[in-house]
Amino acid sequence: NLLTVPGDPLAGFLLASAAASAAGLSAAPTDAAWARAGVAVAAALLIYLHGLIGNDLFDRKEDERERPERPLPAGLITPRAATTLCLLTAAAGIALSWLNGWASFGTALLLTATVLLYNGVMKRFRILGPLFMGACRALSLAMGAVAAGWRGEGSSPTLAAIGFLGLYVAAVTAVAQNETRA
Questions:
Q1: Are 54 and 123 contacting, i.e. CB atoms less than 8 angstroms apart?
Q2: How far is CA 138 from CA 59, 62, 77, in A?
Q3: Could you give the C-alpha distances from 152 to 17, 32, 71, 108, 166, in angstroms and in order?
Q4: How far apart are CA 24 and CA 105, in angstroms?
Q5: Cβ contacts of residue 155 below 8 Å, gap of 6+?
Q6: CA atoms 66, 70, 72, 74: torsion sign
Q7: What's the CA gap between 150 and 116, in Å, rounded?
Q8: Where does residue 175 rank: exposed (0-12), middle (13-18), buried (19+ CB within 10 A)?
Q9: % of residues, the chain, pLDDT over 90
Q10: Residue 166, Ramachandran bin (φ over 0: left; ψ between -120 and 50: alpha; else beta)
Q11: Which of 20, 80, 81, 147 has the fewest beta carbons under 10 Å from its own?
């Protein structure tokens, strides 16, 4: 799923830019704005990678039973190395988001906290788990919108997209909860 992540912040950036342009609040994105979009995409990818590694760390015992071929149970990477990489990718994503300002930094912090809560606790809950996963992807879309300068103005299309993506991913996650059951 890592390769699906760039679409979230990029879509948020384009939606917020189009909404601001339609509302007469800004013109078409400049080169600097596109650079901010690139930063948002890179930060979202790093935070998502943090989530993937964190998921494997939190699920080590389960993976030893059900997916022994995965890198941690198979001994291809040590838990210490995985933990270090998990922390470094989170820190890099958050630090990179800082280049886009306070709002992006705050969004990245919220996304990272939501990923951590999902992996550590919430995915074990039948309803909260999918909602938190949906929130992760919705916040990824919001990172792009914030990179475009979105702060709620012209918000209907952007908020609708954030909400729709969050609910869609929550629904897919709810269906996928049963993937390892007979």
A1: no
A2: 24, 27, 31
A3: 12, 21, 42, 17, 17
A4: 26
A5: 19
A6: positive
A7: 25
A8: exposed
A9: 70
A10: alpha
A11: 80
Q: Whole-model pTM above 0.70?
A: yes
- Provide the pLDDT for residue 167: 97
Q: pLDDT tens digits for 159-169?
A: 899 999 999 99
Radius of gyration, CA atoms only, the chain: 17
User: How confident is the model at residue 180, as a pLDDT?
Assistant: 65
pLDDT number for residue 24 = 64
Q: Which two tokens stand for residue 107?
A: 């969004």
Burial readout 67-76 (b: 16 or more C-beta within 10 A, e: otherwise): eeeeebbeee
- Which residues make Cβ contacts (< 8 Å) with residue 125, sequence separation at least 6? none
pLDDT, residue 1, reads 77
Q: What are phi and psi of 119, to 5 degrees?
A: -65, -40
Residue with tokens 């909404």: 19
CA separation for the pair 47, 40 (Å, rounded)? 10
Confidence band, pLDDT 50/70/90 cuts, at residue 182: low
